[in-house]
Amino acid sequence: MKQLLEGSQAIARVITRCKPGVISAYPITPQTHIVEDLAKVNANGEGDFEFVRAESEFAAASIVLGASASGARAYTATTSQGLLLMTEVLYNIAGLELPVVMTCANRAIGAPINIWNDQQDVYSVRDSGWIMLFANDLQEAVDLHIVAFKIAEEIGLPVMVNMDGFYLTHAMAEVEIPDQKKIDKFLGKYSPKDFLDVKNPKTFGYLATPKEYMEIRLGLDKKIKNSEKTIKKIMQEFKKTFGRNLGFVKTYKISDARTILVSTGSIYGTMKEAVDELRKKGERVGIANFNILRPFPEKSFFGVLDNCRKVIVVNRAISLGAEGILTTEVKRVLYGKSKIEIVDAVLGLGGKDTKTEDIVGLVKK
């Protein structure tokens, strides 16, 4: 049954049903309602998890690192400056190959201070070694969190689910929170593969000499790249169990499109309206919206470019002094393999409203 819920409230409910053993997070706008609702669930005895209050995001990330290394299913959430404060620990979690799941409620980074949405935060840590998923609507955000736990635990890597701050975290929408029994069956009982145990001592995160370090890091790179097949299998399994489709690239009116708009996140809805308007005027425009950034879905992206002559990358994160960060990713994939023209566009930074007419004007320009 669908329920009318605020985005953050929906995420708190689905996280509770995924049954983490330890949750630790520090409140920061626009993530606060997620951790606030999880704290209420814990206080009311409705969730079977330990909720650890932390004095900062760095501490929260360190707590879930320790919890995961000790064999518990672990979860945290953050945004913006909080995510950057976690950066050192994010690299450690990935380097230790721990299956932590995190929600990032995407928000601009200062200075100047800005609490509204763009995706500069997640793109700033894209190289940390986390699997990175993106939701374009609230139902997808709910579903991706269930998938995230299964991906993390099957592959042995941390997973970050990105959902646009305010547009998704604070919006009210009808969503289905899957049944507890179905989630239990899909995820299975958590059985950590490698964890700290006083009866079986191990060393985690030892000092790697120059002789070892490069091989270890390249091994992690290979593991992330090779995870694509497993992630695809899990998403197919999710569809069989819950009846909803999740994929690497969400497309719209792509079959005959000569121009394709490329982006990530909730701007997909605005782009759909723009494409409908442009189609009425004879413009053959479509959309390819990435639901995953790491590993980068090269094959899935190539699969939607059959008739395409131009790609317009709509970025909400910029590498200052260079270009939109997603543009760089797209150029890397297409370089030497295609003659498609690539156009770099940066819109919506700091929550600046991006309207249908802005997308239409961008295509016409």
Please give the structural blueprint.
Layout: E1 2-6, H1 7-17, E2 22-25, H2 32-43, E3 50-53, H3 57-69, E4 74-78, H4 80-85, H5 87-95, E5 101-106, H6 120-124, E6 131-134, H7 138-155, E7 159-164, E8 172-176, H8 180-187, H9 210-226, H10 228-242, E9 249-252, E10 259-264, H11 267-280, E11 285-290, E12 292-294, H12 298-302, E13 310-315, H13 325-334, E14 341-346, H14 356-364
Parallel strand pairs: 2-3, 2-4, 4-5, 5-7, 6-7, 10-11, 10-13, 13-14
Antiparallel strand pairs: 1-8, 6-12, 9-11
Helix pairs in contact: 1-2, 1-7, 3-5, 7-10, 11-14
Fold and architecture overview:
- The chain has 365 residues and is of the alpha/beta class.
- It has 14 helices and 14 strands.
- The strands form three sheets. Strands 3-2-4-5-7-6-12 form a seven-stranded mixed β-sheet, sandwiched between helices.
- Helix 7 crosses helix 10 and helix 11 (267-280) crosses helix 14 (356-364).
- The chain starts with a strand and ends with a helix.
- The mean pLDDT is 96.
Provide tags for this entry.
14 helices, 365 residues, alpha/beta, 14 strands, 7-stranded mixed beta sheet
List the uncertain runs: none
The percent of residues in helical segments reads 40-55%
The global form is globular
Give the overall average pLDDT. Answer: 96
